[in-house]
Design brief:
Elements: H1 4-37, H2 45-79, H3 85-106, H4 113-142, H5 145-155, H6 159-178
Helix pairs in contact: 1-2, 1-6, 2-3, 3-4, 4-5, 4-6, 5-6
Length: 182
């Protein structure tokens, strides 16, 4: 069985990947807004869609790596009796969103991909909310305000705030680990 310090370090490692993923989601958001502002009937729009899809796939791969570490960390904390179920559920929703989104990208030409991608977005919003609340709870358990603030910001479904939130979570977890977590 792992001690709490090792578990929190694992969570912190996962957060690095979540920072990268939330950055990529921010890039996706800007690209999506640009594509929506353009006419679907203009020549060359397919290139934008393919570029967006490629970034989503890369973000998904990076996200899966971080989420598996984060999921293991939340699960290990739950096994120690810590009430971080929301974070664990959030990771599962987040992972499901990645699968739905990637399937949506591949099925885009068949038109069923669009609803799958929208469902993926819904799951990522809910997953992000619960993961953020899970980190907020970790901050509450260990009395670390940066971690609580980061969890709160990460829970807000706006990529820039999630990005900043995950950075604060990373810093907060570092403080908890550095202060000699139990």
């Amino acid at each position: 069985m792992q001690n709490e310090k090792e578990i929190l370090e694992k969570l912190r490692e996962g957060v690095v990947f979540l920072i990268i993923t939330s950055f990529l989601l921010g890039v996706l958001g800007v690209l999506f807004l640009y594509i929506v502002s353009e006419s679907v009937f203009k020549p060359g729009i397919l290139g934008y869609v393919l570029g967006l899809s490629l970034i989503e796939i890369i973000g998904g791969i990076i996200g899966v790596r971080g989420l598996t570490k984060t999921k293991a960390g939340f699960k290990a904390l739950m096994e120690l009796g810590k009430d971080v179920r929301r974070g664990y559920v959030g990771v599962n929703l987040y992972l499901t969103s990645i699968v739905l989104s990637v399937l949506g990208v591949f099925l885009l030409p068949v038109l069923i991909g669009v609803p799958l991608m929208f469902l993926g977005v819904l799951f990522v919003v809910l997953g992000n909310l619960f993961v953020g609340l899970g980190f907020y709870k970790v901050g509450e358990i260990y009395g670390e305000e940066k971690l609580m603030t980061g969890g709160f910001l990460a829970a807000i479904p706006f990529p820039v705030l999630s990005f900043v939130g995950y950075i604060l979570v990373y810093i907060g977890l570092g403080k908890v680990v550095g202060n000699g977590a139990p």
